[in-house]
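Marked as duplicate of an earlier ticket. Keeping the data here for the record.
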Amino acid sequence: MNSFQQILFSVVTFLLFSFSCVQVWAQPDSNDEAAEDIEEVIITARKWSENLQEIPDSVTVFNEDDIRNARIQTIKDISLLTPNLTVSNNFRSGLNFITVRGLITPQVGSPPIAFVVDGVTVPSIEFINQGLHQIERIEVLRGPQSAVYGKNAIGGAINIVTKRPSDDFEVPLQVSFAQGGDVRFAGAISGPISERIKFRISANYQTFDGLIDNTFLRETVDFVDQSIALQGSLHAAFSEKTTLDFHLRYADWEKGNNYQERIPSPARIEDFSIYTIGNVVGLDRSTFINTSLKVDHSTALGDMTFILGYNDADVLQFSDTDFNNVIPDPAFAVNFNSVGVQDNPITEEATILEFRFASRADGDFRWLAGVSYETRDNTVTYNDILDINPTERVTLETSLLGRPNGSVVALNIATAAHLTANGISTSAMVFNGEGERTIQDSNSYAFFAQGDYQFTDKLGMTLAMRYDSEERHAFDARPGNSTRSDVVRTFSQFQPKASLNYQITDNALLSLTYSNGFRPGGYNEYNPVVVRSYESEVSDTYELGFKLSFRDGKAIVNGALFQIEQENAQFTRFNSASFTLENLNAQGVDINGLELEVTNKFNENFELAFGYGLVNNEITRAAVARVGDGTVTLGRVGASMPYVADFNWNLTLLYRYALSGGNNLNARLSANTLGPRQFTFIEDADNLSSGKSSAHTFVNASIGIQNDTWGVLLYGSNITDELHAEVIYRWAPFIRIRNQPRQVGLQFNYKF
């Protein structure tokens, strides 16, 4: 979209939004018979069932209709419709870069948001982007939720509620076909096994040729060879007081990976005539297993809940390291450090236990309290593979087997033995970096409690508190490093939260909130020139919020002003001396911002939703890195943390029209703008060398016919084919990952 189109689109958006606001205040509350009644929105993100408009938190909610109409399938799709939440695709398909309210995700650290599925917190970012299907409701809380969900919920939480097993048998099916050979199938079966036991089983499948070209290989690089997701749930009612819910999720995929583009200068970060030109076919081969068991038991005093969760991830990332197809000259080689291929297996296991007791919800006072325990084991292996002839096509299979002409030589000992056994000389090979570089395990526990008290019909207070303690143990298993790299440290924090809410009228709520957030510190890969550990990040957030409803809930205006003070904000830099990623801390960061959300159902046919987020992020105390006896100051006071968008907004227009025979015509037009982002690499003293992106607007649309049994939908994503940089890293000198281009598809669904 060019500058004129952006200006025109912004003017039209402003006019539509202004018109909506006029309609919100102009139309009467009780005499609007044209619009149908709106059911109140009940959420469970705070571990109680509550009316969205009566709680002192900033929450965006998507119900089943919203999810279907917006085709929400990933966490990135959620971000396109949520103020101050940005999700960018990263170098690995299952790894997202998330920012919320100016709080960022370190490239090798934890995201600033908790991800909760059916009451169980997902242990790490590896488990977040497995695809969303058979979802009943999505709740996005912004602002620290550490007092409720514990460590890492420093910026908020995303609460996913999947569909429960149904009382009657149902078999919904869905299939879609889109550009790039994108074929997707989703199906489920649900119903009763007996009077007390019900089940739901669902499956997703995708193959995709891809839409992003590698101009050297003359093939697409964002392919999906195969992606399978299975999900099962069981609900058992042992009695009127005791129920059990069991969930099992399995995901397995082989996808294109790390298709980065080498950018020669900061001035060209948005030059999309530059394409991927590497000679290596990147691959992400991943398997995930998630299970959870929840038991609820009701007593005369309140409700007890027991949760057990287990998660297992097995990831293999294979890709280029030089992102080029020519043997570099000496100057170029210095920038790249190596000419080759990388092989990066990662495994992770986590077990979660939680017990809580909640009082009865009746009366002016309610409370809950509980304990939780979590163990995690993580192993990261890294192998360099020498690419002697970068003009040949390289795949995972050819790099592992080697070639008789010696064009690809793996630098790990097992592969070298294989080559030697097959008569291929390894005398000229250099062995560098093979083996398990980082093994980390952690044990954490927490105590938490929260309570609501209603002083009067209008004035209420919420208090919450949580204490988290996590012991992290790390070492490098490579020969010679295991003993001297062995370290253990405990990170802990008390996290309070307090909210006052005042019900000005039946339709107007004002709230004031203070909350503390905590993201534990940890360990970097062992190397004498790398900072071994980084500190815990702690934030204090002050928020003034308001919630207004009109016309019997058909029009809603919610908003918030917030200020965040960060201490030891975590970020990642590439350490060229060790050729590794390294987490560090910016000693102080201040964030100020606002959010606004408006929804208005004008009548039974037409609905509008608008969201706007604004953030000012500023480093107030620079990062200090201590390596050996030396101290290095990184970043510049007054600069921004990387990847934080100055603003974002979204606009959605929905039109529904009743046709004959119980059919409905549904049309949807949505747009979202991601504001300028400083692709800052905080190690730069001037904080300018990485450049800044422009604002980008993306448009999606769909139109279809739907009834209770079947539906057909024509859809288009990024229909203006807007291009932008998802992420940019400072390396050789810069590398970039671009977004997905325009895609048009057709979707069919049928329910037996």
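See parent ticket for discussion. The longest helix spans residues 3-26.
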